Amino acid sequence: MLAKGLDPAPIVEHIVELAREQRAGIREISRSELDATARTESPQGVVALADPLPEVALAELVTSPAGAVGRDGRPALPPFLLVLDGITDPGNFGAVLRTAECAGVTGVVLRSHRSARITPTVAKAAAGAVEHLRFAVVPGIPSALRTLSSHDVWTVGLDAAGPRPLHDLDLAGEAVALVLGSEGRGLSRLVAQRCDVLASIPLRGMLGSLNVAAAAAVACFEMARRRP
């Protein structure tokens, strides 16, 4: 759907061209109707309606299909998962997903309650990342961590008080899951206990912690850098 009266722009022309290539219907509607449909702040004049994102079983995230290859055409690395223990702010959630996709995360584990879900606001903040990540929604993170451990996935909980600096971890090519807590309390007690190791980001300033989206960016790219 396009808002009526949009100023000509190459990006809009490109979107229309892609829609026609995919045989998607194109309809012009009033700006007020588009704003109501978008359900986000400051929509930019174009809205696409799509099927809900598919969810996968947790076990599917820890196995790579035979012959799977990475973006560079080489054999795929072991899974690199992101486990989110109760992030509730849609902006933070979307930013974390964008970072995760850019850092090469292969799957995201979410809990089914008291957690942000993928909404139009989250999808906009993620800037397309939701289309390239696989999601498993689980009843509880502690039990999911136990399942990951049974599949030889090394779980690393990010905690400001973690005894090991993140950059000291040896990520020797095994499957790994980075576990992030909520904006306020961080990792819950049981989740922290179920992690194989608790790691921290060394801070040099006066403040004692980073915003969860900023911490996710530092941690994801540090772990990606240390993988083969």
Describe the structure.
The chain is an alpha/beta fold and 228 residues long. The chain has two domains: 37 residues, no CATH class; 169 residues, Alpha/beta knot (3-Layer(aba) Sandwich). Helices cover 33% and strands 16% of the residues. The chain is built from eight helices and nine strands. The strands form two sheets. A seven-stranded parallel sheet has the order 5-4-3-8-6-9-7, with helices on both faces. A two-stranded parallel ribbon has the order 1-2. Helix 4 runs parallel beside helix 5 and helix 4 packs parallel to helix 8. The radius of gyration is 20 Å and the shape is elongated. It starts with a strand and ends with a helix. The relative contact order is 0.15. The mean pLDDT is 88.
Topology:
Elements lengths: L1 E2 L6 H12 L6 E2 L1 H8 L19 H4 L18 E6 L4 H14 L3 E5 L8 H7 L8 E4 L2 H10 L3 E5 L5 E2 L10 E6 L7 H6 L2 E4 L11 H15 L2
Parallel strand pairs: 1-2, 3-4, 3-8, 4-5, 6-8, 6-9, 7-9
CATH architecture of the largest domain: 3-Layer(aba) Sandwich
Q: How many individual helices?
A: 8
- Show unreliable segments: none
Structural class: alpha/beta
Number of beta-strand segments: 9
Straight-line distance between termini: 44 Å
**Mean pLDDT rating:** 88
The CATH homologous superfamily of the largest domain is called SPOUT methyltransferase, trefoil knot domain
* Helix percent band: 25-40%
Quickly name the level 1 CATH class of the largest domain. Alpha Beta
Q: In percent terms, what proportion of residues is strand? A: 15-25%
Listing every helix as H and every strand as E from the N terminus to the C terminus, the arrangement reads: EHEHHEHEHEHEEEHEH
Spatial strand sequence of the major β-sheet:
5-4-3-8-6-9-7
Number of discrete domains: 2
CATH topology call of the largest domain? Alpha/beta knot
The dominant shape is elongated
